[in-house]
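C-alpha cells for chain A. Residues wanted.
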C-alpha cells in the first residue's frame, strides 16, 4: 500500500506543493526524516537520483538532500531548522534545475538504448545509471568507432520532437507488451515508458515529455572489456530553465 501520494508522476513539472506531515523522526545532529501525505519529491531509484529542495512550515524548515522509497513510504531526509510537527501543513519546493537535468539525462539514456537496439540487435542490456556519471552497459561488443554514428543517430531522433509517454500499467499489460520481465511485482501497478514507436518498457523514473527537451546528447566514450560494452553519456543545452 502506498502511504504517500506520488504527485511527481501526476505532474512531473510541478515545483511547489502544499501537504501535511504524516510523521517526523529525529536522527541527531540536527537532521530529520519527514513523511508527507503527498509529495513532488522523486525518491532515488531506477538509476535516477532523488530530488532535493525544502519543506517549510510555520515553525521550521527541512533542507532536503535525499529522498528514498521503502514499502510505500517516501522518506524526505535533511537538515532541520526550527521545528516541524506531525499534522502540520507544509509547503515544499524542489530544486528544479536538478530535477530537470535528471529528467533529461534519464530520457536520454532510454533514447540511446532505443536507437542502439534499432542499429545493433545483437546486444543484451545489463544495467544503467542516469546520474552525474551516466552510463549504459550491454553484453556484447561495440567498436569505439561506432561512437560518432550513435551520437548522430540519437541527436537526429532528439530533433524529431518524439513524444515520451509514461503511464501506470498492470503486470498483465507489461507481459503482453514486453514479454516476461523478471523481478516485477504481480500485485501492484507498474510504471511504463514508451518513446514514440520504439518498444515500451517498465521504468519508474520521471521523464521529459518530448525528445527535444533532452537537448543535445553527448556520447563521451564507448569501452568494451570481457565481452561487455559500456556507453558513457551526458546532455547539453535543452529546453526549459535550469536554476
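Reply:
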Amino acid at each position: 500500500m502506498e502511504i504517500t501520494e506520488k504527485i511527481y508522476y501526476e505532474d512531473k513539472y510541478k515545483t511547489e506543493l502544499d501537504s501535511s506531515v504524516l510523521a517526523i523522526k529525529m536522527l541527531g545532529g540536527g537532521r530529520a526524516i519527514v513523511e508527507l501525505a503527498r509529495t513532488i519529491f522523486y525518491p532515488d531509484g531506477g538509476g535516477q537520483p532523488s530530488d532535493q529542495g525544502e519543506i517549510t512550515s510555520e515553525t521550521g524548515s527541512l533542507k532536503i538532500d535525499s529522498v528514498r522509497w521503502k514499502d510505500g513510504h517516501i522518506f524526505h531526509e535533511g537538515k532541520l531548522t526550527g521545528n516541524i510537527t506531525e499534522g502540520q501543513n507544509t509547503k515544499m519546493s524542489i530544486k528544479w534545475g536538478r530535477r530537470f537535468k535528471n529528467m533529461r539525462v534519464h530520457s536520454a539514456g532510454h533514447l540511446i538504448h532505443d536507437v542502439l537496439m534499432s542499429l545493433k540487435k545483437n546486444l543484451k542490456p545489463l544495467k544503467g545509471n542516469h546520474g552525474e556519471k551516466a552510463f549504459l552497459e550491454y553484453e556484447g561488443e561495440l567498436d569505439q568507432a561506432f561512437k560518432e554514428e550513435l551520437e548522430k543517430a540519437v541527436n537526429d531522433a532528439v530533433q524529431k520532437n518524439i513524444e515520451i509517454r509514461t503511464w501506470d500499467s498492470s503486470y498483465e499489460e507489461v507481459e503482453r507488451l514486453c514479454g516476461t520481465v523478471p523481478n516485477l511485482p504481480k500485485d501492484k501497478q507498474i510504471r511504463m515508458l514508451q518513446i514514440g514507436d520504439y518498444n515500451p518498457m517498465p521504468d519508474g523514473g520521471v521523464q521529459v515529455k518530448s525528445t527535444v527537451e533532452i537537448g543535445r546528447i553527448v556520447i563521451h566514450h564507448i569501452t568494451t572489456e570481457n565481452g561487455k560494452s559500456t556507453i558513457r553519456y551526458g546532455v547539453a543545452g535543452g529546453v526549459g530553465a535550469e536554476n
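The chain has two domains: 5-94, 99-236. The two ends are 35 Å apart (CA to CA).
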